[in-house]
Amino acid sequence: MSMKIVVYTEGSCLGNPGPGGYFCVVIVDGEPWPIDGGEEHTTNNRMEMTAAIVALVKIKDGSDFKIEKGTRIEIKSDSKYLIDGMNKWLPKWQKQNWKTTNGRVKNINLWKRLEALSRNCNVKWIHERRGHVNDPVTEVSCEYARRAALSQKRRSRK
Fold first, then answer.
1. How far is the C-alpha of 123 from the C-alpha of 1, rounded, in Å?
2. At 155, phi and psi to the nearest 5?
3. pTM for the full predicted model
4. What is the rounded CA–CA span in Å between residue 60 and residue 83?
C-alpha cells in the first residue's frame, strides 16, 4: 500500500500588510503534523505561500517520517494566488524572467522556494473553495492561522 500525504495550508494577516500568521497540517497516513508561525509585518499572500513552504520542508526533511519515492502529495489551500501560481503561472513567469505585463512578479523569492521544494516531487496543488464548507480540518487551519497572526500582533506591541 502506498503512503498518502495530504497538506492543508492557511495564511492570515491582520491588515494587509500587517502582522501575519500561517498554519499547515501535514497528514501522513492519517497522522497529523501541525506547524504554525508568523511574521510581524507581512501580507496574506506571503503567509499563504509560507504555509506551503514549511509543509514541503517538513515533508522533505525526513526526520519525523520517511516518504516513499513517488509518493503523491496533495496540497490544499483556499488561496487562488498560491494554487494558480503553482498550477498555471509559474512556468510562464520563469520563461519571461519573472516579469509580467504589469512589471515584476511579486514574492519572487517565495515562488522560487516553492518551485525548488516541489521539483522532483509528485505534488498536486488543489484549490479549496472559500468558506471551508464541511471541511473541519480547513476550518481549524483557518482559526490557527488567525491565532498565529494575533500572536505576531501582540509581539509587535511589546
1. 19
2. -65, -40
3. 0.89
4. 20
